[in-house]
């Protein structure tokens, strides 16, 4: 008798609970859930049974790539479905994992250009003002550009995580459950201080979350994404996305002469490969600057 197929849509909330119990970050849970949800939608729209079979997954990924999806995003969808399949096996919903050994789509190796100093200055300038939103957004831009914090780490900050006196921000739980401390300078400290003084009049002033929204509302990832994209547009910056701030922080660190080891510690990276990934676009520029300083042609 053939094995009955699990109802993937019905079991998805249970998997999300399991991911929370494993202390996966909200960003990871959102990414995994989005991958499964989009797969189920694709199955419904294309008349495929909603099952985690190799042929169905391969067809799903092939369609995504044919429609112009980037390889890294397709890999993310592939990983989500594989993790879901593994959980279904662990829970006894599947007797065996049908996706074991299935090769993921080839990853892209795109060069991402960081914001130039001029662009970053323009972005900061359009945030300057006396409203709570202005002061919040300037503090966020300065903090992200200086520390390289992930967007999810930024929105998760508590008031108690910021030490203005010593210029330190604590990431209690970063990617992979690892915490770290990142330093920031006097201009970022001043921007944070201005924001915190304005925050005292907010309806949520007595709550722990560092960032609050306009109109007495809370402030999360989607709010951060929306406001910074709007600020970037006002600054005349095309193609802005939140991850660009992390690329910018890493590039500025190395360009200023900071060490790769120091960057890894501040950014929360455990492998040096991440340095190349985030600063590859500026590698030639740094090499040229270093070569001029060495003066190897002076014989």
Strands of the widest sheet, in order across it, are 1-2-3
Q: Just name the CATH architecture of the largest domain.
A: Orthogonal Bundle
**Given the structure, what is the number of helices?**
13
Provide the residue-averaged pLDDT: 86
Provide the CATH top-level class of the largest domain. Answer: Mainly Alpha
Percentage of β-strand residues: under 5%
Say what the CATH topology of the largest domain is: hpI Integrase, Chain A
Helical residue percent? 55-70%
Distance between the termini: 82 Å
CATH superfamily of the largest domain: Intergrase catalytic core
Low-pLDDT segments = none
Could you give the count of β-strands? Answer: 3
Main sheet: strands, sense, barrel? 3 strands, antiparallel
Computed Rg: 22 Å
The sequence of SSEs as H and E is: HHHHHHHEEEHHHHHH
**Cα shape:** globular
